[in-house]
Amino acid sequence: MSDKTIFEMIIDREIPADIVHEDDLCICFRDINPQAPIHLLVVPKKRIVRISESSSEDQATLGHLMLTVNKVAHQEGITESGFRTVINNGPHGGEEVPHLHLHILAGRQMQWPPG
Questions:
Q1: By CB distance 3.0 to 4.6 Å, which of 6, 27, 28, 84 could disulfide with 21?
Q2: Which residues pair with 28 in a beta bridge?
Q3: What is the pTM of this model?
């Protein structure tokens, strides 16, 4: 796990991103390949490879990520119309970056079942 992910490069300001929220534990920015009119990523600053590799030590960070989704959704004005939060895990789950992140998708009607 020595190579930096694109998210770590964003956190370290090595590459630019449209950041909408940042605090001590996480960062949230607009996805560069949006799948909805609003597509944000909430990323912990601590590298947790994926949700299936998290541990009880990550409990506070995981809870903080969910509360950040709530905060950002209010900030973006999407709580009333609704939004979808997605966590991809592993290749069959659609994971592209091996660094846990939560997608916030909004601005259009979401379909069910997804994918």
A1: 28
A2: 21, 42
A3: 0.95
The residue count for the chain? 115
Q: Under CATH, which architecture does the 6-106 domain have?
A: 2-Layer Sandwich (3.30)
The amino acid that residue 84 corresponds to is: R
HSE, CB side, 13 Å, CA atoms: give it for residue 82.
Answer: 5
Active site residues: 101
**Sequence-ordered list of residues with C-beta below 8 angstroms from that of 93, at least 6 positions apart, any chain:** none
N- to C-terminal Cα separation, the chain: 29
- Helix/strand/coil percentages in the chain, nearest 5: 30, 20, 50
